[in-house]
Amino acid sequence: MSEALVEYSELEPQPVRIEGGHGELGTLRSLLSLAVPLVLASTGQTLMHLLDGLFLSWYSPSAMAAHGPASMFCWLLMSMFIGAAGFSSTFVAQYHGAGRPERISLVVWQAIRFALGAGLLLAVIAWPLSGVFRWVGHEPRLASNEAAFFNIACLGAPLALLSSSLSGFFSGRGENRTLMAVQLSAQVVNAVLAWALIFGVGGHAGLGLRGAALATIGAQGWCALWLTLLFLSPRNRAVYGTWRNRAFDRELLGRLLRYGLPNGMRFTVEVIGWTAFLLIVGRLGESALTATNIVWRINSLAFFPLFGLSAAVATQVGQGQGRLRPDLSERVAWTGLKIAQGWMLLATLVFLLAPRSLLHMFMPHWATDPAAQATIATGVVLLRFVAAYCLTDAANLILMGALTGAGDTRATLVLSVGLYSGFLLTLGLLDHLGQGLYALWTAATVMVTVLACALFARFRSRRWHHMRVIEMGSVTV
Predict the structure, then answer these.
(1) Is 384 exposed, middle or buried (CB count within 10 Å of its CB: 0-12, 13-18, 19+)?
(2) Contacting residues for 445 by C-beta, under 8 A, at least 6 apart
């Protein structure tokens, strides 16, 4: 049956146990058993970005200012394809929940084909696009630095997309400790390479931003290599046929893209919104952009671990939908929301009570540098904005994980297009009126809050209860 969106509420529900987990779907223990390895991996990813930011801020304030827009624009180009390739995790989770292991490796191979083709295309077209930084009006030195990082970083697109497609094989089945080990090791590789290439070692001159981009590619290559080797391990070849089931399947690839591309397009819409935000902040000058980049790095310390929790929620929701148990899928989401809100409450207190201590890490000479003191003063105010939207942004991640885990990608795309279109118009109006940094951050805070309300309304509608992305067939327990 080619139609992946099916009604199945009248079928007999099946009990759900998690392979390698603890108890039923949606319990605190079972969710945490899946989430903790992903949270650790996400935290490692956050520390990697934090270290990159720290190294670049120590190397040069200009390098730090350029890194934010350049890396965001690189992510913008890759986001739709990463979202589509990484949607293999939802298919794997639902096939795993339905007890159909023979389909798992087949869908991963379709994702791999798409990832490699799209990645090569991105690597080729990136170079002509690097002129965007001059086009939006950034200062010549800033635009030159941004283009230098962007051109090199985009060469890693095939590796990044390959890793995304392969990650779904592990995360969808709940084998998150393996995924954690690979990702953390890649982050160690990135940290070592970044230090050596940014500052230089053994008498070799540092490469600055170019070194940071090369370090990222090195880490992406390490991650892709190990995920490929593990995917093709003897055990996985025997249990899941990861080499035997590599045939091209047009129908399955089409279904993966039918649901994965809207998910990737939503990523792209979101990244367009936040890239535009950074680019417009950059028009206010290097100082405003530096303060914004630093605060975003600090925000990521609290925010990025929730990516791991959101992925765990998506996995368990997918497994619940595969087993025809939307009631347990909903319980997963509520449990995830409680964990996320508790974590973000702690982060909010830190942002409000110790903002200067956090900002001083990025400004080691703040005591004697008036410009650094001004940046810190601005950063203190921006951290109050972060504290204001932390709880709603946490809800966005968890609710989006639940909805995409069920396959509700078209509705989330429509919501994102509508809200981010309004956000872009607001940013353009504020820029036209010559409004300052705090007005832009106010618009961002309102945007995050409105999105949370829209996602919660969609979640409570329960229309996603009757969705799943895999073909209808017998459920094997």
Answers:
(1) middle
(2) 385, 388, 389
Q: Which residues contact 170 (CB under 8 A, 6 or more apart)?
A: 176, 178, 179, 227, 230
For residues 325 and 13, is the Cβ–Cβ distance under 8 A?
yes
* Residue 332 resides in a domain: yes
CB 312 within 8 A of CB 176: yes
pLDDT of residue 343: 92
Query: Does residue 389 form part of some domain?
Result: yes
Residue 458 CA to residue 121 CA, distance in Å, equals 35
3-state secondary structure of 134: helix
| CB contact at 8 A, 57 and 294 | yes
Cβ pair 67, 362 in contact under 8 A: no
Cα–Cα dist 55/431, whole Å: 31
Q: What is the pLDDT at residue 475? A: 47
Q: What angle do CA 120, 124, 126 make, to 5 degrees?
A: 115
Q: Domain tally for the chain?
A: 1
Contact indicator for 50, 300 with CB cutoff of 8 Å: yes
pLDDT < 70 positions in the chain? 1-23, 42-47, 49-50, 203, 364-368, 472-477
Domain extent for 461: 28-466
CA–CA distance, 304 with 308 (Å, rounded to integer): 8
pLDDT, residue 449, reads 95
Is 477 part of a structural domain of the chain?
no
pLDDT at 47: 67
Q: How far apart are the first and last CA of the chain?
A: 21
* Structure tokens belonging to residue 293: 């980049």
Torsion of CA 48, 31, 167, 474, to 10 degrees: -170
* Angle at alpha carbon of residue 5, lines to 4 and 11, rounded to 5°: 100
CA dist 114 and 78 (Å) reads 13
| Position 5 in a domain | no
Helix residue ranges, H only, 283-408: 286-303, 305-322, 326-353, 355-360, 370-406
Helix-strand-coil percent breakdown of the chain, rounded to 5?
80, 0, 20
